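Lecture notes, structural biology module. Today: joint structure prediction for complexes of two components.
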Amino acid sequence: MTQSPQNTPPAPVFSQPWHAQVFALTVHLHAQGLFQWPDWAARFGATLARHGLNRSLDGGDDYFAAWLETLEHWLAEAALAQPDQVEALRAAWEAAYLATPHGAPVHLAAADMPTRG
Amino acid sequence: MPHDHHDHDHDHDHPHALLPPDPALRVKALETLLSQKGLIDPAALDAIIDTYENKIGPKNGAHVVARAWAEPDFKQALLADATAVVAELGFYGRQGEHIVVVENTPQCHNMVVCTLCSCYPWPLLGIPPAWYKSDAYRARAVREPRKVLAEFGLKLPEETRIRVWDSTAEIRYLVLPMRPAGTEGLDLQALTDLVTRDSMVGTGLPQSPA
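The predicted structure, tokenised, for the full assembly:
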């Protein structure tokens, strides 16, 4: 924080692709009318406060980690994404990356896709 | 993306696609699930990322500030009802927030923080920098603003009062910095080029003309 950004080249807007993705996902869900932004800010602020109790957050990866946790909890509460479903898909994506040769596009196997209903 | 090392039990004799970090996989999992349920449109996500990475940024706010410097009527309208003025320019917030513009004077310097999380006038300034989101700035801007500004290299005269505005989800602030000396006769574009992001958050001043 003490570095003056004036003399440094502009930083990328998002330092990691997943920061951009979780941001866009949240903004999109809000645009779909699934929640009110002040409610989001209150929940997110509470997560940040909790994470910052034992250490000082630097506003980078830890900021978006708090963002993702807030979104996961809210989606679970709203019964839009249950933790066990999310974990199964996370594991499926991990397996897909590990099974895909470097340089090839990574896809989920059809068997890993969640079933409707 | 840098080739970070990720811990996993895998034989490196058979190189596979670079495994993204755990949070990235969790985000992909949410995307897959919500997309399957028809709650999100993956193309819309790409469009949002493109907008914030390439189309929205401090140049929007800089344009507003430069016009306020150049056009007294515009400045008056901006200070009276910034939400309406910037919406007319196409810089409206999608979170339903109000924009309030606070004017720096020789007597009073304004600076903006969000102590709750990181509320920020996205349509005018884009995504906030990491320091704006850090605990250090969020906690100290209110408690010791003069010291924080000094760390940004901004030393204000003792007689200048510092006013700190705490943003919320409903109200986002933009600082209207003082027009630098020696800018008489500059056109709108030249004025816009002098306006820095930090000068609109209150942690810096506009550049001086070369």
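Point to remember: Residues 91 and 100 of chain B are 13 Å apart (CA to CA).
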